[in-house]
Amino acid sequence: MKNVPKIDLGLTGYDELFMNDTERMETKLPHIYDIPLELIDDFPDHPFKVRDDEDMMQLVESVKERGIITPVTLRPKEDGRYEIVSGHRRKKACELAGFETVKAEVREMTRDEAIILMVESNFQRSQILPSEKAFAYKMRLEAMKRQAGRPSKENSVPVAQNYEGKTSRELLGEQVGESQDQIRRYIRLTHLVPELRDYVDEGKIKMRPAVELSYLRKEEQADLFAIMDEMDCTPSHAQSIRLKKLAQEGLLDDQIVYAVLAETKPNQQEQLKFKREELRKYFPSGYTEE
User: Fold this and answer.
1) Residues whose CB falls within 8 Å of the CB of residue 242, separated by 6 or more in sequence, listed in order
2) pLDDT (average), residues 70-95
3) In angstroms, what is the C-alpha Rg of the chain?
């Protein structure tokens, strides 16, 4: 598509989808093309999963009845093919619906512009897994740093941190509604082995323990997961901190892991509770609560 003009992104509505090219030029809307699905490649290292779940089946039925209301966004490649930037679920729905083409906006973008748009568009999903956020934040932060360029002489923060006096992590936090610390925690999840990352997605391990475990070497994480699976338990935050410290000191081995995981966690200890009124009758009136 060498003649495709450079255009600004604009998500079109249902009525706009059926405008002809003349009407689109008059309203300054992007051109929409019917692109063969066989010419569209997935976005490299796309962090968001496209699931064949109930929501997908509902989307497929909707596509069969009405087509896709919002066109996908594609980026032309040098070999004449296209790379999908926004609309992975819609593309998949068209495939499952038996369509051969998909309505698409074709837009010239740099790799970093495409990464930022891909993350932004996918964050409109209702459900996002922690691991999806982790890799999405990492990709977007790296793209933002490359776009910013090197810092000025007045700015001592190294490598690509010049966003109106803010670091790229600060700016990303403002854009996605997360604190810098929370973004850092999410990105640490990318250092987990897939098995532990799945545990985080499934809610078996909370964020803070997972962050501590991410500092273990991959081999140590794999051994830990095997023992966790065998003992059918997961470490608490305090236990994860200890495992990290032992690993840093070079003292972590299977025997230590067994010992740490075998400890009774505070929330597993049986607690007896009594009402204050019931206890008072067993003590003289002059006794204080202490």
Assistant:
1) 260
2) 93
3) 26
